[in-house]
Amino acid sequence: MRDYLLFVRQNLALLTFGFMTVFTGNLGQSFFIAWFGAGIQESLDLSAGVYGSAYSFATLCSAITVIWAGGLIDQMPLRRYVVLISMGLALALLVLSQTQSLPLLLLGFFLLRLFGQSLLPHTGSTTMSRYFKDGRGKALSLASSGMPIGEVVLPVLAVASIAWVGWQYTYLGLSLSVLLLMLPLFLWLLGKSPRLDETSSPEQTAEDKTVPGQLNKPPGRGAVLRDYRFWLALPGLIAGPFLLTGLFIHQNFLLSEKGWSMNWLATCFIIYGTVHWVSSLISGAVVDRLRAPRMLPWILVPLLACMLTAAFVPGQWSAPLMMALLGVAAGAMPPVTGSLWPEIYGTARLGAIRAMNMSIMVLSTAISPVLFGYFIDRSVSGAQLYGACSVFVAVALVLMCLSYPANSRPVANS
């Protein structure tokens, strides 16, 4: 704890920037958008199927676009990139506040998922990975804690604001807040950070200078795709977001199979958020000591235990156990995977590498609700569905052990 406090005090401005970008990115996350769904469907007279299809289509389009847009952080000054991303998020919220038709809703969702869910957290996490070599895990864990804190705070504010002024004025207020409050705050925090030297290009960070020839042609997406370790690790890397999305989107099936009430599950989400935050902080400190490749398989162990609990543990008290295990898994993943890419591939093309992986994760979250729904509609039991998920995680765990943990050698310049 003393190490954490000293680390925060020495790097307060840049760490706060990382935290606030992830926190603000929650405006584009599914858990926050869900609170506006009923109002949007009623105002636009949309069925649940049309609304869900619009949301999935916009998410898929954002997943494709982020491959290009996320890589731009390697090619322009960070402050300029932050301005563009923040203005994009403000525009997304403004479009949604004026939505009166399905095409406008599609545009708003696309922009919100692109700039909110993807690019703003991507900016914060890439900055933490790039500018912190020593203490990278702690920096990533502190930044990623913006998500669980947002999961606790933002729904309460959204519900109160929607009840007070309606969903459209709430989105309008959020748009003005991003433009007039958050963007100036981001720029001020970057200006206060002594670590940030934008007279150098992203290719000239301290970590890359230690590798002979790194400035010539550093490893990028091609190096990742040609690396057999990436393909072995990929099922494990997508397991968390894939299964969590399927589990949460089809939570009514989980409730009916386990005999839980909605209020009981909502109460247990407090456990999820708390454990998520604590797990993130602990994982950040551990990954700085043990390094990311050694930690990689361990992020799947609590996820496997969660799926086994969902499949085979009955009773009301399996709910808090499941939420706690999910919180451990969700909290551990960002510090570990966020540290893995720069350790193996360097930081010069880190934005492009992270954007590619983020696109794959977003695509997996678009597929899992459809796949879960397919099996649920065919009357599979909870034990069968979540048991199959357990097998998937177990196989992914074995493959992950054979990837970077078995060979943690950094990739040479291509």
Notes on the protein architecture:
The protein has 20 helices and no strands. Helix 13 crosses helix 19 and helix 13 (228-249) packs antiparallel against helix 20 (382-401). Helices cover 78% and strands 0% of the residues. It folds into 2 domains: 8-188, Growth Hormone, Chain: A; 221-407, MFS general substrate transporter like domains (Growth Hormone, Chain: A), CATH 1.20.1250. The protein has helices at residues 2-10, 12-25, 30-33, 37-44, 48-71, 78-97, 102-131, 136-144, 146-165, 167-192, 206-209, 221-225, 228-249, 251-258, 262-290, 292-295, 301-312, 318-345, 350-377, 382-401.
Mean pLDDT: 86
> What spatial form do the alpha-carbon principal axes imply?
globular
| Residue share in helix | over 70%
Any idea what the CATH superfamily of the largest domain is called?
A: MFS general substrate transporter like domains
Overall SS class: mainly alpha
CATH class of the largest domain: Mainly Alpha
Query: Helical stretch count?
Result: 20
* Largest beta-sheet characterization: none
> What does the radius of gyration come to?
21 Å
CATH architecture of the largest domain: Up-down Bundle
Low-pLDDT sequence parts: 198-215
Features:
414 residues, mainly alpha, Growth Hormone, Chain: A, 2 domains, 0% strand
Structural topology:
Elements: H1 2-10, H2 12-25, H3 30-33, H4 37-44, H5 48-71, H6 78-97, H7 102-131, H8 136-144, H9 146-165, H10 167-192, H11 206-209, H12 221-225, H13 228-249, H14 251-258, H15 262-290, H16 292-295, H17 301-312, H18 318-345, H19 350-377, H20 382-401
Helix pairs in contact: 2-7, 2-8, 2-9, 2-10, 5-7, 5-19, 6-7, 6-10, 7-8, 7-19, 8-15, 8-18, 9-10, 9-15, 13-18, 13-19, 13-20, 15-18, 17-18, 17-20
